[in-house]
Structures are given as structure tokens and as C-alpha cells.
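Slide 14.
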Amino acid sequence: MVLLLSWAGGCASLPANTDRTASKAFAEPDSTPLGQLVQARRAQAGTRSDSAFYLLDGVDAALASRLALIDGAQRSLDLQYYAIHADASTEVLLQRLREAARRGVRVRVLMDDFNTVGADAQVLRLAFEPNVEIRLFNPVPGARNSMLGRIVTSLHDVERLQKRMHNKLFLADNAWGITGGRNLGDQYFGSGDKQNFVDLDVLAAGRIVRNMSASFDRFWNDELSYPVQTLLDQEDLDRLRKPSLAASMAQGMPATQPVKPVMPVTASPTVLPEVTATEVVQAERPPMDLRTIPLVWAPSTLLVDEPGKVGPGDDEADAGETVIDGLMNLMLGARKEVLIISPYFVPGERMMSVYEQLRKRGIRVRLLTNSLASNDAPLAHAGYARYRQALLDLGIEIHEMRSDPETASALTGSSGGRGGKSGSWFGGAGGSKGDGNSRASLHTKAIIIDGYLSVIGSMNLDLRSQLKNSEVGLVIRSAALARQATRQVENTMSTAAYRLDRDGGRLVWRAPPGAPFKDETKEPGASTKLKLFVRIIGPLAPEEML
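Slide 15: predicted structure.
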């Protein structure tokens, strides 16, 4: 192991980040058609509120809204994501981004660097289009051919590896924007082969989008943000010359093409072979008309971490006031109820203190999180499981998501197809590509306080979001929007989630009344192998790393 660490430390290093040029969001969004549409909708509503919102509570709306923003943009498109996967649904978005760039729209894409490996590195092809710039945040040194290789070559700097940019923003002309839990990829749009995420976004318009753009600019211009060309070597460029598998399959062409001689990475952008994906995904989905969707006009603010939270140094000293700090303060102001939806829930000492204070004041606290079977991060579940008894002791109502495909199908009316029922919060989580076997996994991150205050964003209520990752959350004061979100959550609780209870000293997973499934006493739906893994490995992992 010592030799391995020594080798990794000697082989992995980052270039000097001196080739980036500062840029900012365009300052006059009202001069664009998208900006003018916001003003027209505001005048039509006769409201004094300067920001409007629309819940994207299904996979159809999630994809269609992004395509609508791309197609409507005239000046700028800014995307900030933890992960963008190279697959069929993303290829549709990337092709639309190429088309936007070719009609003169400036495209900036900021990605956390951790997932830009293997097949997903093909997303970086977009950086070689005119009018497109991609930067990678807090890059991890080492080869991009496999995740294991990157981790091995970064073992000498585990702390850097742990700190990730988890923000999710999709901004058009500084006038309309999207934030929430979704990354970009098939499993976030109901088309995953093995797993589909139950997620929630919110479409925003007006003044609040300028706040979102200002946050994007801070991360884009930060010293941890590297132009992608400075991080690619010759081997990386050679791999990028091969069309992505998703695009190749969509076109029915072979997955390789002849490769032309390359230019040095320090020269002007290398031209890569063009790949155009047939829009097989969008063909099954309804379009979105921004002129007619029912907007909710309401007061709002943006909670966002500073880039320094992800940088080297002391976590709390560099992070300042964090998104999670803001959430805890909002929860402490509750008068009646706090409803929490968090797929990964490892509260830690400070957060447990908040819940204890709430319960002492008689505040109802309800939690929807993943079961072991539905959790895509078993170690995170192990961290949460340490707190289950204490949470129940406080009187917190715990609901755990059921993963079974038939449950998701019942919620969405889907028989396993890509789309699911339009407008359903579950989207297409019931299955994919006709097999009906994809399991559902909760990925929504939201808090609803007293039935009128909603916080929707990228943050989990765990120590990783509190101490390691940068996050963003949109705070909206609207009873109407809160009621809509609450109805969707309660529908899931009453049809697709267990209520955690105790029978003596034993945990019991209670099925909802009338549910087609029964009560369970041992981590429902989880395999013996998975249960054993969590039992053995779980206690050894530090909570802030789960």
C-alpha cells in the first residue's frame, strides 16, 4: 500500500490554471425574447412579485423544459452540474446545445470533474464546438479511461477527492433557469436500464434567475475551475475522436470513425468528428410551451455555497455560512411542521440538535428517505441507520422509499416505457425501454416548512452536503407551490413507502393501509448480500464521508 500511494503521488498532478478568461452572465436579460416573455407573463398576472416558478415534477417536464430553454435562448446558456452522463437522453440535449452554439448562442458548461471518466468523458466533445466552453471544477488528476484509475492516482490527496461541486443549474439568457436534484442522464429522465431516480426540479423566471447566474459566475471564474483543454492529454483526445456509444446507436452507425491527425492541446481548439443523435427520446415526449405553463409568482431567495467550501483547507473556516446552515435556521423557525425529503440522510450532531429542539416545541417532523433497497449508495444508508432509533425516540415520522418496479408503475401508470405519465412526480421511474425492471430510487432534495415555505435544490441533509460538497437551494414562499409539492410527497408516502415503527425493541416497516405489499421486519427488498455488506463495512466509515 505504501508503494501504491508513493506511485500515485508521483504520477498525478494538475497543470497551472493560468489559461482561463473571466466571463459573466449578460446584464440585460429583458432585451431577449425569453426576458420579454417573463415581463409579458408578469404583466398578464398583474403581480408585484418579480420571480415566477413552475414545479417540474415528472420526467417529461424535466426534459421538455430544458429543451425549451435551449431552443428559446438567443444570447447565453449556462449549465452547472455534478454529473452529465453520455447516454441517449443527454445526447439529445447536447445536440440541441450544438445547434444553439452554431446560431450564435454562447454556451458555458461547468461540471464537477469526478465523473468525467470512461464513456461519460465523451460529453467533453462539446468543448470543441465554436461558441462552447467547458470547465471542470476541482479536477482530479489522472487518466480518464476508468473511475478506478482516477481514484488510484488520487490516493495521495483523498481530501481533494472527497470535496465535490454538487450544484445543479440550467440557465437561459439570464431570464429563465432550472435547479433541483437532477443531474443529466437517462436514469434522471426515466430511461435508465437498471435504476431510475425519483426527482424534483423547479423552473424559475425573473429576478431570481439573475441570482442563480451570479452564483454560476462565481464558480465559473474561481481558481478551481479549469478549462477542459488544459486537462486533456493526447490519449484523452484520441478517445474523444470516437463517437459516443449513445450517438452511434441512435444513428445506427459503427462506434468508431477514422481519426485525423491531432493538434497539440495548447493550440487552437481541435476539430472533432461531428456526431448528430436522432432524437428518439424526445419523440415520445410532449413539448413545453413557456407561454402557457401555469407559473406561481412568489417571493424567493437563493441559498448557495461559496466555491471556497470545495477548496483546500479547513472545511468550516473556508465554507462560511453554508446552504445547510441556512436550512437549519429555516427549520428552527417552523411553527407547525417540517417535511423533509432527502435521499441520503446522515444528520450528525448539529442537525440532531435541531430536530430535538423542534420536537420539544411540538413541531411535527416527517422524513421521506431511501430504504436500503432503493438507495444507490449503501454506505450512506449505513450512516443513516445509525440514527434511526434516536430519530424515532424524538417522535420523528420516518418513511422509507420502496424500490420495487411494480410500485413505481402503479404510481405513474407506466408499464415500463420511457415516459411514464406526464406530470407525475415519479416520472418514468417504473421502468425503462419496455423491460419494466428498473428499480426506483429517491433522489429529490426538498424541505417544506409550515405548508408555505419550500426549499428545492441539490442539497441532502447529511454531513457530506454540510461539510464537503457545494450546494444550491431555492427558497420559495408560496402556499400554492408548497401544497403541490406536499401532495406529491404524501402520495408517495401513502402508496410507495414504508412507515418505520417499532415492535418492542425491533424495527418494523409498516405498509400503508390498502397497499399491495405487506409489513416487513428486515430491510425490505434488500438482498442478504447487501445487508451483510452494510452490517460489516458500514460501522467503519466516517460519517462525513458517507
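Speaker note: Residues 479-496 form the longest helix (18 residues).
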